[in-house]
């Protein structure tokens, strides 16, 4: 037995080595460094329509950097903003709520009596609690003075304008306005650094510096925070009127001022992507590119394109609320993918927050996590309903699946010739009476053929769902006050007084 044991001793030793080394390898495999939380860059254009990009069928100017962004990520064809106007749309993006749930509507002017309530949690505040560095550049439009500026909603730093750059005492031709019932009533427009007013924006040449200014500061923010997880919200001023392009782009597109502006925007996206590459951040940075609403068609050749959808900004039709949406995250999203599922701007908050491992808001929101769509989970469909609100709180339509049901109301329209302007001047606004109607977006994306008589059961189904939204978040058309709404902040008399410097 001793002899046999001596023969076996080398084999036992060898087995022991194998077991020990395997155990070491097992420990090496299981003890992985934690997955690094992603950076997030949210780029929001102003009044850019569904048909304004080459990758969405736009022409004849070129947007190669945005094309590349789409080719390296996922492009959505059914993305909706909450309302087709500036402040309401932006509040939905940052809070994950329909604007009327949180008391926001329209476009807040320099003398508006309301602002986004600081009690609402935003993408910035939730990520800041997670340890993110947070920055905002560009147009805020959710409150014009402290304490209703970005630093009070979770942003560590801010450079930009408190509202749209057409709220200034300058006429459509770029000269100072003398109409005290018109633009002359607005205060001097100043850039803000945090809460502090700075440089005046008083000419079209000044406005032409905004795209480059925000781009350069975006690159600087990325460079400074490359070792920290960060959230950057870049809300460009363009292509909202008054259009303005810098000297290096003006006249270069051969497609008018709108083409020049779009090509400068495309340059901006390219600079941001180069900064991510240079800092080794591209693979784990979520880049989102979208718009706050459809084109302001009343400005004619200074407006963009809806890509064939009905009407535009200021309406509850597809042209007003369906916009481009591109998301790129190389480590998680397959390149060159297209998603045809319905998604809304309220969905950005829960999706970003979950992706970054932060805590969701305490109060009720309307957004849903669209991660299953990003990962192309078969049969995933996190959102199958969307309601079209406009004015203060008027429920003008509802979509479920391929169907859109419109409710009787009055709507702004661009169909009349007088509604279209030229070379920076707006046309006259016109209105149209909307009837109860049912449209099949699969076969009629332009909403031209009312088929309610052929599908009464669909009308009934959508009407029942609409009543649920009316009871929860209200409807001025049927005089229903929602049971689950929260108030906007009230701006004091001092804060709402324009600064006539």
From TrEMBL:
Coiled-coil ranges per UniProt: none
UniProtKB keywords: Hydrolase
Superkingdom: Bacteria
UniProt xrefs under CDD domains: GALNS_like
Single GO term (MF): arylsulfatase activity
Pfam families: Sulfatase
Domain Sulfatase N-terminal: 38-354
Annotated family: Belongs to the sulfatase family.
Descriptive protein name: Arylsulfatase
């Amino acid at each position: 037995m001793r002899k046999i044991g001596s023969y076996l001793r080398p084999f036992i030793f060898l087995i022991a080595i194998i077991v020990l080394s395997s155990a070491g390898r097992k420990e090496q495999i299981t003890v992985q460094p934690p997955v690094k939380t992603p950076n997030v860059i949210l780029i929001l254009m102003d009044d850019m329509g569904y048909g304004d990009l080459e990758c969405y069928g736009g022409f004849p100017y070129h947007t190669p950097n945005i094309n590349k962004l789409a080719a390296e990520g996922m492009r959505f064809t059914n993305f909706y903003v909450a309302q087709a106007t500036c402040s309401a749309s932006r509040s939905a993006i940052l809070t994950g709520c329909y604007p009327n749930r949180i008391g926001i509507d329209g476009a807040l002017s320099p003398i508006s009596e309301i602002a986004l309530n600081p009690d609402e949690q935003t993408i910035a505040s939730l990520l800041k609690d997670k340890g993110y560095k947070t920055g905002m550049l560009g147009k805020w439009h959710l409150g014009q003075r402290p304490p209703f500026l970005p630093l009070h909603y979770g942003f560590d730093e801010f450079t930009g304008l408190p509202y749209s750059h057409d709220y200034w005492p300058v006429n459509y031709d770029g000269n100072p306005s003398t109409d005290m019932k018109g633009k002359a009533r607005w205060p001097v427009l100043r850039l803000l650094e945090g809460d502090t007013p700075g440089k005046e924006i008083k000419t079209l040449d000044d406005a032409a510096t905004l795209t480059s200014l925000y781009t350069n500061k975006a690159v600087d923010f990325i460079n400074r925070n490359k070792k920290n997880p960060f959230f950057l919200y870049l809300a460009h001023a363009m292509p909202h009127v008054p259009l303005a392009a810098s000297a290096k782009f003006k006249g270069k597109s051969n497609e008018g001022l709108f083409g020049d502006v779009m090509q400068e925007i495309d340059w901006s996206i390219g600079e941001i992507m180069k900064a991510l590459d240079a800092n080794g951040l591209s693979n784990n940075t979520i880049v989102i590119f979208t718009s706050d609403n459809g084109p302001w068609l009343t400005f004619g050749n200074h407006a963009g394109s809806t890509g064939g959808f009905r009407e535009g900004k200021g309406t509850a039709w597809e042209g007003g609320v369906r916009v481009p949406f591109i998301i790129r995250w190389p480590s998680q999203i397959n390149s060159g993918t297209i998603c045809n599922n319905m998604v809304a701007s309220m969905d950005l908050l829960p999706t970003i927050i979950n992706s970054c491992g932060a805590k969701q808001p305490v109060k009720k929101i309307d957004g849903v996590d669209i991660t299953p769509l990003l990962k192309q989970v078969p049969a995933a469909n996190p959102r199958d309903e969307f309601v079209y609100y406009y004015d203060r709180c008027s429920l003008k339509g509802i979509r479920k699946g391929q169907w859109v049901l419109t409710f009787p109301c009055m709507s702004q329209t661009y169909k009349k010739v007088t509604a279209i302007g030229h070379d920076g001047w707006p046309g006259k606004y016109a209105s149209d009476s909307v009837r109860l109607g049912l449209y099949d977006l699969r076969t009629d994306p332009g909403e031209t053929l009312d088929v309610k008589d052929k599908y009464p059961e669909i009308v009934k189904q959508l009407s029942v769902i609409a009543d649920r939204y009316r009871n929860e978040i209200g409807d001025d058309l049927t005089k229903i006050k929602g049971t689950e709404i929260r108030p906007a902040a009230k701006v004091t008399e001092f804060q709402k007084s324009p600064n006539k410097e």
